Amino acid sequence: MWEAVHGPVPKRMEVDHLDGDASNNRLDNLQLVTGSENRRLQRARNIAKFGSPSSQCKLSVAEVEAVLRTVGIVPTKVWARRYGVNSSTIRCIRKKKTWRHVDAGTTCRAKRPKRG
């Protein structure tokens, strides 16, 4: 609808729905914003998809909780192989760069048992 009236959307800009309803394409409900501003607005409106509801997600909340509970016990590459993801994905989960909304009760790090 935006393009029909205003022309092409400029690079690095997105059309935002002011009421958060993507099906409401009335012109008075649309505005141009940057991608980062659009994401911020989605979070503020509680309509952002985090974790498993996201279409790009490869892990479930339960799998992420398992990864977090086993810091210091199960190596990163073991989880990566098991779930078919890159090791950096597991590292990002453990460093809370991703999946920050998941809390697996990891206030203290478990120690790997000593061998021998």
From TrEMBL:
Residues 1-20 are annotated as: Disordered. InterPro entries: His-Me_finger_sf, HNH_nuc. Pfam families: HNH_3. One of its GO terms (molecular function) is endonuclease activity. Keywords: Endonuclease, Hydrolase, Nuclease. Residues 1-40 form the HNH nuclease domain. It comes from the Bacteria. Residues 11-20 have a biased composition (Basic and acidic residues). This is HNH endonuclease. It comes from Stenotrophomonas maltophilia.
